[in-house]
Amino acid sequence: MIAAIRGTHDILPGEVEKWQHVERCARVLCERYGYAEVRTPVIEREELFAKGTGETTDIVQKEMYAFTDKSGDRITLRPEATPSMVRAYIEHNLGQVLPAAKLYALGPMFRYERPQKGRYRQFHQLDVEVFGMEDPAVDAEVIDLAWSLISTLEIAQAELVINSVGCPTCRPVFQEALLAALGSDLPKLCGDCQRRATTNPLRIYDCKVPADQPIIDALPHSVDYLCEPCATHYAGVKGHLDAISLPWRESHRLVRGLDYYVRTTFEVLGQTLGAQNALLGGGRYDGLVKRLGGADHAGIGFAAGLERLVLALPDSAAIAATPRAFIVAIGEDGRAAAWLLLRELRQSGLAAQMEFEARGVRAQMKRADRLAARVTLIVGGDELARGEVTLRDMTTGEQRAVARDTVVAAVRELL
Ligand code: AMP
Fold it and tell me: What architecture (CATH level 2) is domain 16-170+226-312?
């Protein structure tokens, strides 16, 4: 047997209904908030992520499924959606073409990570992006959409965490303060942190090594070093969130693992996922569109992990199966008549099935049970001779004869 690749998984019936539920809620909400769907390719040029996600990030340094294709080009399976969305935005001039550059996408991402619960090598994201708008109200709207997704899915005990990481004007000042505060403690931190101190000091806040935590907890907070425009922007975001009573908490450690974030960053944390507790995360990335060759347009967005949303769904999540009918056919004539009736039911929009192999009535009724059919139609010689079909309501067990030409309407009423 050839098994699925480590860190990938099949989504099977029984599980897939939860996925459909999550995807349906995501789509409905995105449409309601005015986002248009975009589908970008799964493969992109490697340099898109080197430039977009950032050379110093773990994603680009260690986790990309990159390869040289047959024409010698460096290609990668996309590890995240934002650079692809920015590329599409620039390439198709979407800022001009669309009435509002508010985009969403759903699809698989690929990262060569160590698999564990909630962390996979192929995983799926809902990705939401807004371009060309800098007002703090936009940050709040994006966060509101993220939070609405969590509440629509009835995921309890989720927590909204926000921060501001400043901009290219104020961040260097903060980084300097950070390194100064670290001072002689730096050699006591883990190897990763020491590397980060030279490549991207903010990422020290991402460290999970227990021994490092007391030192990191004592480091300064980015919000205390914001320049005046960043401070005003951040105050605006918090004001808009308060106005709609979103329960946010500020965390100075929320710096996010990617290089492009400026100003607002946010995450929603869940309770059921252990170490992989981020259900979604995002932030503002003004400057990225320009860095990837476009105009100097602002950007903000988030990505939610669908695997993690599915894992966090409450047991009570109402995920209704399509109600269906089942036709039990008796004898050759019955089967021929059932075949026509089956098609008629389906053409009229109802879900219906029958057994194609000749089976006894008991075996067919068993099948109807296994399929959880809500209605069974019994089509046999006697009924046919009378121009009737027997209808059995599987919930109540009630059975009655119905005229053949009214049977579709009768089934519809029961489903
Ligand atoms: P990121 O693109 O790293 O900011 O992640 C955004 C969201 O995607 C996270 O909050 C997770 O829900 C999800 N995610 C990221 N990496 C993985 C992974 N390897 N497996 C499953 N979900 C992931």
Answer: 2-Layer Sandwich (3.30)
